[in-house]
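Sequence, please.
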């Protein structure tokens, strides 16, 4: 505002006594923004928050899609994954005889002692699973990277578009863990899905869902079954690396799976 005329006949400016309101308004605005952020954090969906944490970790990791065991898998009970390094391969299903030959060829690249140890673990897992009547949807094979225990994630293992283990899923994990406790092999938990888009629910992509499922299994192995977290890594591959074409509901069901990969003795995770 202007003051009375100065001696020189010109109007002199004086300080506006209400300028403090601008600073006060800025401070109130910043405080409001701060409290909004604090409120959002206090009510955040835990799974989404941990998912975001994994997303940042994987963005700066040389192995995207992998939860390094050195950081502990249990803290990533729910997380947002990125797609693994594998590429989607839409290949026709192969006959059991061809698959058997491929597995035999892969197993032959293992040392005799490694193959013997993995075969022993394989037999123990199969025996334990059959004894509890949990063999439906489960298969095993000794490959060049180790023993692969493949479990289909149908409605019994996981609910549709969910990463929470169902009761029978927990029993399968616990039964496999009872055998793995007596071993020292490193273990990769790999999650896979079909190629159908997700509609609704807390997960927006198949990559996210597969990684959260893999982490849920790994967390079960650590928290409930007592396995050493340094032995475990969880990976989400989404619709990558299908074992069957995604043309029919039956084939898509084969692609929705969790692979327990028991690495060969002395092998380390990538």
């Amino acid at each position: 505002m202007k003051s009375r005329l100065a001696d020189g006949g010109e109007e002199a400016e004086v300080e506006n006594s209400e300028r403090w309101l601008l600073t006060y308004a800025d401070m109130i605005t910043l405080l409001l923004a701060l409290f909004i952020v604090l409120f959002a954090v206090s009510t955040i969906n835990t799974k989404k928050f941990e998912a975001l944490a994994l997303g940042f970790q994987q963005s700066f990791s040389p192995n995207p899609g992998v939860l390094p065991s050195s950081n502990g898998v249990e803290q990533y009970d729910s997380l947002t994954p990125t797609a693994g390094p594998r590429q989607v391969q839409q290949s026709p299903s192969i006959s059991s005889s061809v698959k058997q030959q491929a597995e035999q060829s892969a197993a032959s690249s293992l040392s005799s002692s490694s193959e013997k140890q993995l075969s022993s673990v394989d037999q123990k897992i199969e025996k334990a699973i059959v004894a509890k009547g949990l063999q439906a949807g489960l298969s095993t094979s000794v490959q060049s990277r180790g023993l692969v225990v493949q479990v289909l994630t149908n409605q019994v293992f996981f609910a549709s578009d969910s990463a929470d283990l169902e009761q029978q899923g927990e029993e399968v994990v616990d039964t496999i863990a009872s055998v793995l406790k007596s071993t020292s092999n490193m273990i990769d938990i790999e999650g896979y899905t079909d190629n159908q888009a997700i509609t609704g629910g807390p997960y927006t992509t198949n990559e996210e869902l597969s990684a959260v499922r893999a982490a849920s299994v790994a967390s079960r192995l650590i928290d409930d079954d007592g396995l050493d977290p340094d032995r475990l890594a969880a990976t989400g591959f989404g619709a990558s690396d299908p074992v069957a074409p995604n043309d029919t509901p039956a084939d898509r069901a084969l692609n929705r799976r969790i692979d327990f990969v028991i690495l060969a003795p002395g092998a380390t995770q990538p």
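Residues 77 and 125 are 25 Å apart (CA to CA).
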